[in-house]
Amino acid sequence: MGNHQTALSRCIDAVGAGRSGFAAYPHTPLYEMRWVKPYNLDARVEPAAVVRPETSKDIAGIIACASTNKVKIQARSGGHSFANYGLGGEDGAVSIDMVNFQHFHMDNSTWKATIGAGTRLGDVTDKLDEAGGRAIAHGVCPDVGLGGHATIGGLGPMSRMWGSCLDHILEVEVVTADGKVQRASESHNSDLFWAIRGAAGSFGVVTEFVMKTRPAPPTIIQYSYSFNFGKQSEMAPLFSKWQAIVADPKLDRRFGTEFIIMPLGAVITGTFYGTEAEYKATGIPGRIPGGGKQGVATNDWRSSLVQNAENEALYLSKLAAPFYSKSLGFKRSDMIPPDKVQKLFEWVDETDKGTLIWFVIFSATGGATADVAMEATSYSHRDKVMFYESYVIGVPLRSKSKNFLTKFHMKVLDYAPNGTYGTYAGYVDPGLEEGQKHYWGSNLPLLEGIKRKYDPADTFSNPQSVRPVGSL
Question: Where would I find the FAD-binding PCMH-type domain in this sequence (predicted)?
Fold first, then answer.
């Protein structure tokens, strides 16, 4: 390294003991392309180092190096943070890339799976299915890493039936700020286990999960209705009908659905975990707004996840792009009244977006996710029955496009009753003031206390992570 060497890099290189591909630094050739690989190109950040450890002992050594040099740390599993928080979110952090932690083991007597934190969701699906036709709840983007996904919530179309991905976690191995490699579960380090299930990036580096699994549903009904009216105002009544289904407290839990608005049209998607006869018996098909181009398919478990990913074009998730996003969670009492929906959609028609690539996804949640008490894990959105997430993409990304989403968000806040507040940390929004309160709500004070116990120096940190209680 010559003159490029620093105390931090010398320490990290000593941990790597000369291993090729262990670490890279800003002076390393093709550093951004091969090592940093930012997901959101509108959120530029340069880590002080990107390290690819192979063992928990490696991670402990890297943490010691960062702590000694007073450098912040963040782990990255899939690298899909909207604000590049897996890279630290700000210049100068150490990013621990978990790509080498993809081990897998199924205990066929208990059906508990041990899964490395660097495993991508598409691989999780395949490995579980091949190990006995098993499954867990998770999102549909195949390239997202389990480590980040499972520790902030992990919502997907099956969450109404099975709960969130983090509700399947029984135990973790985690390396904490003091360099200890620890196990955490309901019976051991239970406070740390509580915090990890919703906010792990603030507390340590999770290396593996022990998760309960379920038999994969043998039959899944999937449908989509595509509407190409050209004006969003014409689709406002369709959205209101769809929203009424989502708000129904008796909605069959085997059903997940989204309403996606985009240029020139909208799409309603649905996934029902059961047979066609069972789906028809629920009465849901007769409640879905009609009039669009209909597509219906019967799939198995793996095929259903492929179809869900294609519905949202998420197989493009490997492609970095400059984008901006906003989101919000809705309780049942927060549903937008039909007259306000009409005004909102008319406003969308009239507003210059500054880009041709934009979309807004409204998705149903609740069901089994809400069966777990708010204080049972640090994930704090058990009372939400719907989320929205919006996106604008542009090369370059214009301020006009960002303003469109910001104004859309403000109008939703204005039109939704009862002081709608808070959003899922998986839809991270660096523009939020007091983002921690939005992400963790009433669970934040307890998180801050646990943070002080396990990471008082705030070593695991990004711009919106949990701070130790008493810190400025």
Answer: 43-216
